[in-house]
Amino acid sequence: MNLQSEKIEVIVPALIKARASFKAAVKDASNPHFKSQYVTLDGVVESVNQALLDSGIFCTQQTDVVDGRTVLYTRFLHESGQWIGSAYPVHPIKNDPQAEGSALTYARRYALMALAGIAPEDDDGNAASRSSSKSNHDKQARDIAGTPTAGAWESMSEEEQVFLSDIAIHAAELLSNDDALAAHDHIQSQNLASEEKIALWTRFDSKQRSALKRADAASKTKKEAA
Predict the structure, then answer these.
(1) Which of 31, 97, 164, 200 has CA 20 to 30 A from 149's CA?
(2) Which among 21, 23, 28, 60 has a CA at the least distance from the CA of 43?
(3) Are residues 114 and 155 in the same domain?
């Protein structure tokens, strides 16, 4: 699979120039159920689009079906005809339009950030609030001390925390749409280790945990009946 044109000596300097003008991909939306913020697809596009256009580069995201699965192709097309791109398999939890659309939006967001070499960032307000919220965080840590999940999240590396946060955010989005079974299936599809599951569990509130427990019970009952 080709992920770039035969020649790239023109587009590479243009991308370097554009990269210097990329804006921060600010977390511009909140998930009330997960009580967290995340950057939307619009936010990612806004952070890179104008800088790319100023350098003669257009971003396109197209899909194709390969071996029965949707694949997202993200490409930076330069006015010279040269291009650099990536391929990202889309993983819908269920075979229906809603799940496909949700998975595609998720894929578009992260594929674009990966190709542009950017990451989500907190806005100034969130950064300022970290200090004031530290006491609340310490209280929560004391509250869970001695429980099976105590220290589980803190024991994860930064890379593992980012990975688990992405899983939790997507699951929370499904839960907010009253699709607990899809959220459960999404988590199960990640094949997490025991310690990762415990750490992930700390990212959900009591209502979300209850919904996931019910979905897990329903899933087991369905398998036993099959």
Answers:
(1) 31
(2) 28
(3) no
| 86/110 same-domain check | yes
Query: Read out DSSP for 40-92?
Result: -HHHHHHHHHHHHHHTTEEEEEEEEEETTEEEEEEEEEETTS-EEEEEEE---
- Exposed / middle / buried, residue 124 (Cβ in 10 Å: 0-12, 13-18, 19+): exposed
Give the integer Cα–Cα distance in Å for 60 and 52: 11
Task: Find residue 65's DSSP bridge partners.
Answer: 70
The residue with tokens 């587009």 is: 11
Tell me the C-alpha distance between 196 and 160, whole Å. 8
Of 120, 148, 173, which residue constitutes the final position of a domain? 120
Residue 206's H or E segment, with its range, is: helix 206-225
Strands ordered across the beta sheet of 57-66: 57-66, 69-78, 83-89
Residues spanned by the domain of 97: 11-120
Q: How far apart are CA 163 and CA 17, in angstroms?
A: 30
Express each pLDDT in 139-152 by its tens digit. Answer: 443 343 344 556 77
- Which of 93, 120, 147 terminates a domain? The answer is 120
Whether this model's pTM surpasses 0.70: no
In a domain, 17, yes or no: yes
Residues 94 and 137 in one domain: no
Count up the domains in the chain and report the number.
Answer: 2
